[in-house]
Amino acid sequence: MDFLQRTPFFRLLLPFILGIIAYQHVELYRWSLISIFGVSLCLILLAFAIHIPKQQFKFRWLFGSGIFLFMLSLAYFLSGEREKKEAFDHLDKNGIYSVELIAAPIEKAKSYLCKVEVQQYYDSISSNPTRGTAILYLQKDSAASTLLFGDRLLVETEFSPPEKAQNPDGFDYAAYLKRQGVGATSYISANSWRIIGKNPAFSIQREADKSRNNLLSVYRKFKIEGDEFAVLAALTLGFTDELQPDLLASYSATGAMHILSVSGMHVGVVYLVMAFLFGFLNKSQQQKVIKTVLITLLLWLYAFLTGLSPSVLRATIMFTFVSVATCFERKSQIYNTLFMSAFFMLIYNPNFLYNVGFQLSYSAVLSIIFFQPMVVKLFKPTNKISQFSWDIFAVSIAAQFGTTPFTLYYFHQFPNYFLLTNLVAIPLSSLIIYLAIVLLIASYVPYLSLAVAFLLKWMLWSLNFLIVSIQHLPYSLSHISLDLRQMTIAFVAIFFFSTYLYTKKYSSLFIGLACLLFVFSINLHTNYQTFISKRMIVYSGQKNTHVNFINRNSNYIFTTDSAETEKIAKTFWQNQKLNTPSYLDKNEWFTNGYAYFEGSRILILNAELIKYQTTSIPLELDYLIIGQGLKPKIELLLESVHPRKIIVDKSISHWYTEKIKEVCKMRKIGFYSVAEKGAYILNFYD
Question: How many C-alpha atoms does 439 have within 13 Å on its Cβ side?
Fold first, then answer.
């Protein structure tokens, strides 16, 4: 109760979060929402209407219940308004659109990713104002490479809704973009767009982008290039476009990804630098106010330069409150400050709740605040070096308590050497940030800037070298996966363990242990289901065919692109506790695309079968899988094979899929389109 009294924003934040979650899973009619809102106001007014002290205490729950319902209904309402505001007009309508780039283009392998605001729609008759945010993939050419934030384009295209998850345990790209405010995507060929001008109005984000580019040019001026430049730009300015996949994999596998995401640690370093530089302004209250104003302005300038990401906003809001509290010599109630920053961020945009960085950032900070003092007390160092090392260990261990459930749910892996990584990465990355600040300030001082740049490059190379070296240590990574139920229950367990440490009540310890037992029970149930499972899955790939045969723990895959298979099926394999797949070529039950699996006759069509093989007696099949981008003459094909069902994967064009569908309907053959319905999953039973 004492904790709740000292953290009023926690009591506001909890129902607000529940309201945001409720919006995604429960559909309330407008009158229902108004009713809840009305009940909340009545409860609050009723609480104020009671004037007798004894009765006020007895019915104190009225005010709390009213605030709870009010926050829940407010969150639900704001979530709905945000969705309406970000709704996309003119989906699936071919025409000409005028759009404006609202972010700097990002270079991809074969295109430029452009986030745009759609402004006008032109059809053959008239033009209409429209709204919505979309992702355009512009074909790579010299013209696309010159585009800048704020450019206005005329494009001929058809905007489509983002693709939902089509594979089991696949990434839901549509939900991800929706929570980013993006309602459509489109690919634009080089001859289907042109620049028509620039936005002349002032834009804070555009100016921030220009400023960040100017600072990045300082790094390039001193020949900081390659992976060193990529890490420095990400570490100091939140610019991640040049991070290569191999380097990202190394940082992820060693538990060092947090240093590449500008967040609390980075803002904290900037805060400490500013506090040191303005330390002389402590002689009077007036000077302290001036110092606080300067630090706050510089913190927000830094947040501005890094793109105002959710993690930076959270950290900047937090340190702003800490700075103000320090100015007036009041001890900042860190929990309340943290909950306050989260509350205001979610009011601004409820979808921040679903941002992975937002979740990891808050869970890490809360965990460090609570567990780090306890971990520190477990060991008493005897010198400054061991004290420094132990402090880093304590922070790392404390952070893992709060972030591990998220890590196992989203990334399905645990870095075993995270303590060693942080012992290296935290000091080095902090020094790099300090040196980068010095370089940016002293870039016009000839000899000093060269010396700082040389030292900075050497430290960046050392950081990357050490991270990659740790990644290649034996058993550096454990592949562990939690589903949503397990992650939720794991956090409940952590909550009750924390309650036990705070109250010493054994009931909390018992509940926490029971929750852990439940998590392990779910894991055992999944293993059992996998042990008895027999299934065939035809995955939804972009241009390739992937067919998965699962027989208990045996996992077989037929694919025309192993890299894409890993990308779309790896999470499913991990969640189902399946063994590493064996790639099919030829065995006792699979030859040249023909499989006799669990009593079913299955044929995966290939070009050789179409071109060379004929039969006088039609081959009786249970399932015919048409993929690999083939276009067989379906009528002739069905003279050679008689399938009970035809499965067409996503590599087949839409028009040809429709043609096969019509033929199947005429001949009363079962039909399934992977492009239309998602991956085809067939369960075999004993």
Answer: 26
Do 467 and 396 fall within a single domain? no
16 has pLDDT over 90: yes
SS3 annotation, 259-305: HHCCCHHHHHHHHHHHHHHCCCCCCCHHHHHHHHHHHHHHHHHHHHH
The full length of the chain comes to 686
CATH of residue 187's domain is 2.40.50
Say yes or no to pLDDT of 20 above 90.
Answer: yes
Neighbour-count burial for 264-286, b at 16+ CB within 10 Å, e otherwise: bbbbbbbbebbeeebeebeeeee
Indicate the number of domains in the chain.
Answer: 6
207 within some domain: no
For residue 281, the model assigns a pLDDT of 80
Q: Tell whether 206 is covered by a domain.
A: no
Longest dimension (CA), the chain: 101
Looking at the structure, do residues 541 and 521 belong to the same domain, yes or no? no
Query: What pLDDT, in 10s, does the model give residues 322-332?
Result: 777 777 665 55
Q: CA 286 → CA 53, 298, 330, distances in Å?
A: 43, 19, 16
| Each residue's pLDDT tens digit, 101-130 | 988 888 887 888 999 999 888 877 777 888
Instruction: For residue 672, tell me if it sits in a domain.
Output: yes
Query: How confident is the model at residue 107, as a pLDDT?
Result: 82
**Residue 61 within any structural domain of the chain:** yes
pLDDT digits 0-9 by tens, 193-202: 999 988 887 7
Q: How far apart are CA 453 and CA 439, in angstroms?
A: 7
Q: Are residues 59 and 99 in the same domain?
A: no
**In the predicted model, what is the mean pLDDT of residues 40-61?**
79
- Give the global pTM: 0.83
For residue 301, what are the domain limits?
212-359+413-478
Q: Are residues 309 and 457 in the same domain?
A: yes
Do residues 365 and 338 make contact, with C-beta atoms less than 8 angstroms apart? yes
Of 218, 220, 238, the C-alpha closest to 103 is 238
319 and 244 inside one domain: yes
The Cα 144–Cα 142 span in angstroms is 6
